[in-house]
Amino acid sequence: GDWQTQLSNSDRSEEVAGNLLEIVQRRDVGTVVFAGDQKQHYSPIQVSVILFWRNLIQAVAQANATPVVILGNHDRIGLYDDERNWLPILQDAGAVVFDRPGQIDLGDGHLYTLPFVGTEERLKKALSVLDSQTPNPKTDILVFHQTLAGARFNKLGPGGVVEPGKGIPLSSLKPERFRYCLGGDIHLSQQVG
Q1: 180 vs 2: CA distance, rounded Å
Q2: With contact defined as beta carbons under 8 Å apart, do 121 and 127 qualify?
Q3: Cβ neighbour number for residue 39 with a 10 Å cutoff
Q4: 68-79 pLDDT, tens per residue?
């Protein structure tokens, strides 16, 4: 998650994409999940960013893997508008996209998604949808794009931790219901909880 592709990091994005495609081909990966914030800027979207992501999605699909894209906060067209986003462009390129909670069959399990939602009301609805599902804790995975309370966050400086009330509690995801819970938005590799 959190590529936040823009003109200034396009070389790094190209390098990471090349490494990703090499792994997908060498390891016969069946699904590649992009966990939100594929782009940095809201609107307008830089044409080079659109082309980069279209080409990457198509290359993942051509490598016989299913590209899955989950909405991140930067994937919206505006700061306060969850409904309008650029995911239809990525869907047209061949991605399975989620801007609402959902799931996809992985063959030997399911991938559940909890995309970014910008208000507490929408979060309650999204968590309710997630709660209504019956994942198998031995095989199923949750990928989300939300800020977690208690997570280290790069925007807070060294050692900065998201305070309660500034992020959702890990318990609201009910991680015991899944084999793995993987999230975007916190920008630092870590295990929370």
Answers
A1: 19
A2: no
A3: 22
A4: 999 988 888 876
Cβ-contact 187, 2 below 8 angstroms? yes
Q: Are 38 and 5 in contact (CB under 8 A)?
A: yes
Residue (of 133, 189, 136, 143) closest to 31 by Cα position? 143
Helix (H) or strand (E) holding 34: strand 31-34
C-beta separation of 111 from 103 below 8 A: yes
Please give the model's pTM, rounded to 2 decimal places: 0.90
Local confidence band at 40 (pLDDT 50, 70, 90 cut-offs):
confident
**Residues in the chain, overall count:** 193
DSSP letter at 93 equals T
Instruction: For residue 74, give the nearest of 112, 116, 102 by alpha carbon.
Output: 116
Cis previous bond, 135, omega within 30: no
Q: Which of 66, 88, 91, 68 is closest to 77 using CA atoms?
A: 88
- Measured CA distances, 184 to 28, 51, 55, 114, 129 (Å): 24, 23, 22, 10, 19
Residue 60 token pair: 């993942």
